[in-house]
Amino acid sequence: MSIFVNLYYTGVNGNARKFAEEMESSGTAAAIRSEAGNLRYDYFFLMTDPETVLLIDGWEDQKAIDVHHASPMMEKVMELRQKYDLHMKVERYLSDEDGIPEADSHFIKE
What we know:
Strand content: 25-35%
Number of strands: 4
Strand order of the largest sheet: 2-3-1-4
CATH topology: Alpha-Beta Plaits
Distance between the termini: 24 Å
CATH class: Alpha Beta
CATH architecture: 2-Layer Sandwich
Shape: globular
Number of helices: 5
Oligomer: single chain
Number of domains: 1
Radius of gyration: 15 Å
């Protein structure tokens, strides 16, 4: 069962956006995307809150997350969070192995 985590990084004076930009420009985000078990690692900018950035982080299972948390990448992430004085809100979701219910499928255009 895959696990997806929504991390909302909030700061002041554009610091959340600067954090995401440095994660990308430093290669840290790319390195995390290449870790075994990573399914997704993407930043989004919220239209309703310019001081918050959303990271959608997906992993194959808890073991992959645990390995990631023990990796040198986490030290870099924590260093940058500290640098930009960010606060976090976290939401965690487990994938639905059954997929999209038939009743919902007509709302989706592929």
